[in-house]
Amino acid sequence: MDIMIDTNIIVSAAIFPNVRMNRLLDVLSQDHQLFICSYSLEELERVVKKKWSNRLNHIELFLQQVQYTLIRTPSVNILDTDIIMRDEEDYPIMASAIIADVDVLITGDKDFRGLDLERPEILTISEFIKKYI
User: Fold this and answer.
1) What is the tens place of the pLDDT at every residue in 26-53?
2) Model pTM?
3) What domains lie within the chain, and their CATH numbers?
4) Which site among 47, 78, 105, 124 is 20 to 30 Å from 117 CA-CA?
5) What is the gyration radius of the CA atoms in the chain, in angstroms?
C-alpha cells in the first residue's frame, strides 16, 4: 500500500518518538511504500527551527533512517474546486497526496478529517494501526 505521512507525523516520530510511533514506522517501512512531500519537508524545517531548534539533528537523523519516496509538491493548487480546506496551508499536502495517488494519508491534523474523498483514505495513527496492523 502507498502511504503518505503529514508533517505532524514526522515531528512526532522524530522529536517525540514512542513505542506506538516506532511500531508504525517499522510497519510502513517493511510492508508499504512510504511517501513524504516536499512541502512537508519545508514546513518541517520551519516548525522545528521555530519551536525546537536544538533538535534539528533529530529531523536529519529521522530522514536518513527512514526509506521514503519524495513527492514534489505542485507550485499551484491543482485540487478540484469542490475540495475546501479550512487551512490554506493544507492544500499543498492534499495536492501532493492526490498527485502521488497514495492509498492512505496519515495525519494528526483534524482539518483533513472532514474531507469527503474516495482516495486517499485519511487516517490518524491510531486508526491506521487499528485498521491495518
Assistant:
1) 888 888 999 999 999 999 999 999 999 9
2) 0.91
3) 2-132 (3.40.50.1010)
4) 47
5) 14
Burial of 21: CB neighbours in 10 Å, binned 0-12, 13-18, 19+: middle
Retrieve residue 99's grid coordinates. 498527485
Other Cβ atoms less than 10 A from the Cβ of 38: the count is 14
Instruction: Report how far residue 46's alpha carbon sits from residue 80's, in angstroms, rounded to the nearest whole number.
Output: 28
CA distance 73 to 97: 9
**What are the DSSP E strand ranges found in 23-92?**
33-37, 69-71
Quote the Cα angle for 12-41-48, to 5°.
Answer: 55
Model confidence pLDDT, tens digit, residues 68-116: 999 999 876 666 656 667 777 888 999 999 999 999 999 999 888 878 7
